[in-house]
Amino acid sequence: DADVTQTPRNRITKTGKRIMLECSQTKGHDRMYWYRQDPGLGLQLIYYSFDVKDINKGEISDGYSVSRQAQAKFSLSLESAIPNQTALYFCATSGTYEQYFGPGTRLTVT
Amino acid sequence: QKEVEQNSGPLSVPEGAIASLNCTYSDRGSQSFFWYRQYSGKSPELIMFIYSNGDKEDGRFTAQLNKASQYVSLLIRDSQPSDSATYLCAVHSGAGSYQLTFGKGTKLSVIP
Fold first, then answer.
1. I need a surface site. Which of B27, B72, B93, B99 has the fewest CB within 10 A?
2. Chain B contact for A60, CB < 8 A?
């Protein structure tokens, strides 16, 4: 089984809808991250969490929120989706400095 | 602002040749350096990391670090078509931070 899993893998939603992306990990890492990736823009950090009680905004947190339900689970929510949030979303975990990525969620907002 | 720069490519090399991928970074205090491979539509996969000046070899991959020049590179020997992907350089600045700063990646194409 994969160490970092993301659900759903693909999602199409409409403008204004609330959507949640979920991430689970079995690596036992404390640190978890959410990124989005757009063509030509590289990986942009949305939120990160160093433990269940520690959540921090990244460089592009507007329009997003997160919840760290347990050490192994970190969810990303789009409260009211808009078309420019169409992107590939990755969850990652780290024990020390190197990060390990989940398979990604391809989100399309129409 | 911490920056990591990579040539976007595409870098084209013939099968069997050495591919050389380069990365420069702006934060002189950076401590750890990582190379990720990303196939189109897939997630980044860690292939190498290096902490000290000099070379580090792992199979066909060699990472090279020169902190004085703020430069890190990845060499791929005996390049194969399966090496065709985008390679991301990532830098950890240290100082109690666990964030990585990623470059935008270099697209490598290995021509059979």
1. B27
2. no
pLDDT of residue B97: 72
> Whose CA is closest to B47, among B97, B90, B94, B17?
B90
pLDDT 10s digits, A25-53: 999 999 999 999 998 788 999 999 999 99
- CA dist B83 and B59 (Å) reads 13
Which chain A residues touch B29 with a CB distance below 8 Å?
Answer: none
Q: Tell me if chain A has a CB within 8 Å of the CB of B107.
A: no
Burial profile A2-24: b = 16 or more Cβ within 10 angstroms, e = fewer? eebebeeeebebeeeeebebbbb
Partner-chain contact A90 B46, CB within 8 Å: no
Q: Is A61 exposed, middle or buried (0-12, 13-18, 19+ CB in 10 A)?
A: middle
